[in-house]
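Exercise 3.2. Students should predict the tertiary structure of the chain below and write it as structure tokens, then compare their answer with the key that follows.

Predict this chain's 3D structure.
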Amino acid sequence: MKVGLIGFGKTGKAVASVVLEKPDICLEWVIRKSRKLEHRSVPEFFGVESKEPGLIYSSSEFTAEQLFDQFPVDAIIDFSSQDGVRYYGRAAADREISIVSAISHIDPSILEFLQELSLKTRVLWSPNITVGINFLIAAAKILQSIAPGIDIEIVEEHFRQKPGVSATAIRITDELGIDSRTINSIRAGGIIGTHEVLFGFPFQTVRLKHESIAREAFGTGAVFALEHLQKFPIGFYRMEEMMKPYFGQ
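Answer key:
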């Protein structure tokens, strides 16, 4: 499977390193806003041996149509920003290129745009694409169904400079149908991301906790999503759909 990566910040680099390790996925190129590292290869950047081209381009160098026609791919993994999907979205959908979007904070208009694109191609969106956090959400929903009305608190911890409330924590409250005021935010040091769902029973406490210890976790999640997305028909999906078959085993 030929893949293009949108975004090459800290998380994008970690995702690229994971993709390079997958023998059945070929990293064709990376698109970023900056012209830094332009025309360098990702394997060379990491200092690893690889036959994959993984060339880095600036979005100002090509239109999305030119990019896809000159360097065709089967799928896109997007770890950029909301502007990224505006750049490549329609051109990708017109060519039925699958899209895995991991944009965290997303405007409703961008989400609607992704849903519009899903009329022509496979689109998966997840504000936190790690396998672990999506398992946590599924498990929390099961426990909540067993004990409806139980006290639930969400704790999210991130690095000191992270602004706002975690989009993943907001998603957890949305999935559980509880008030976002149950979210308790902690900002300290270089914490990559920790999310905990606390269930307060009268005589016991249950804690479901997920901790990202390295950004490569987002890469393994993106690869998992991409590999499973290809089995689904054209449409809009969340990670939950990719994981449902495993809960039936």
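Discussion points: Residues 2-129+216-247 form a domain with the Rossmann fold fold (CATH 3.40.50.720). The chain has a mean pLDDT of 93.
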